[in-house]
Specification:
The chain has helices at residues 4-16, 24-28, 59-66, 84-102, 107-112, 125-130, 140-149, 166-186, 204-212, 263-280, 285-288, and strands spanning 77-78, 81-82, 116-119, 156-163, 195-198, 216-222, 233-239, 251-256. By secondary structure, the protein is of the alpha/beta class.
Length: 289
């Protein structure tokens, strides 16, 4: 039986072989961030800053190429297989994505932001992932709570939904909401009572629209995570959403996170778009027509 000390020696031996990039600077990247156990954090650096090809003729040119795309290029091979560091980084990024899907949004954070919590008819994360239709329906308790706590017929109603990434909500909402609220105030638009929906899908806004009858509904929701990031959030907006709403009636600001559209900037943009929807009394293709 291999004991813990022997396992650590094996892991350290593998880690010591990592970082064999095309340049000394690139090779040193993983070792810059080391955890208490003495092992580097494989996810601590941007993949676009390192070339893994050991005999690249123009490593600087490849670095420029990598910085132009989030795709996993110039990753190198050891025979027919990925090199160890590349494979471990892939597994790490995949694990982050899974954690974002299966994790739960910190409800204490929502309370700190002044958002009360309601839930759809979904009973578990497993049911949420296998029954998308149920994530579009509010529970009866949720409907009664919304009626009791929210101002009816607001000009703009703000809703935060966990969606497919809890990490996206936790990483972006704190910066997005203040920018959105400040922008709405500058446009002389009154916001209703914001709240958080657990186990929700995009179209849950339609039931909320039926209950509160807002002029404009702004919904923040976690995007499906990938290997590039697990923190990307979307902002869906619609004029008077209801059960007859179709997808082309909605407007979308996507890719909201630190590596895409910064959340504060996205919040200000959403406020301007809400004003446009409010004035035009239309959204989606009806607004652009």
């Amino acid at each position: 039986m291999v004991n813990e000390a022997e396992i650590r020696k094996i892991v350290e031996a593998v880690i010591s072989q990592l970082g064999m990039g095309s340049t000394p600077e690139a090779a040193a990247k993983p070792a810059e961030t080391v955890e208490k156990g003495g092992l580097p954090d494989l996810a601590a650096y941007d993949l676009r800053e390192k070339v893994f090809l050991q005999k690249a003729e123009n490593p600087e040119g490849l670095l420029q190429l990598k910085k132009s795309t989030p795709a996993r290029i110039c990753v190198g091979r050891s025979g027919p297989r990925p090199i160890t560091e590349v494979w471990l980084r892939f597994r790490a990024d995949h694990a982050f994505a899974k954690d974002a899907v299966w994790g739960e949004v910190n409800e204490k954070l929502m309370e700190e932001l002044g958002l009360f919590c309601v839930k759809t008819v979904v009973n578990s994360k497993d049911e949420y992932l296998t029954r998308p239709d149920l994530g579009r329906k509010l529970s009866e308790e949720a409907k009664e709570t919304i009626k009791a706590k929210c101002k009816p017929n607001p000009q703009v109603q703000i809703v935060v939904v966990d969606g497919l990434s809890s990490k996206a909500i936790e990483a972006n909402v704190s910066d997005f909401l203040p920018a959105l609220m400040q922008g709405l105030e500058s446009h002389n638009l009154e916001a209703g009572t914001p709240f958080f929906v657990k186990y929700g899908r995009v179209a849950v806004m339609d039931e909320i629209g039926e209950i509160l009858q807002p002029e404009v509904l702004v919904e923040l929701i976690g995007e499906r995570p990938g290997l590039v990031t697990a923190e990307s959030m979307s902002c869906y907006m619609c004029y008077k959403p209801n059960k007859a709403t179709i997808e082309s009636d909605r407007m979308l600001i996507s890719n909201i996170y630190k590596g895409g559209l910064p959340p504060a900037e996205a919040g200000a943009h959403a406020a301007s778009l809400a004003k446009k929807i409010f004035d035009a009394k239309a959204s989606g293709l009806n607004l652009q027509a």
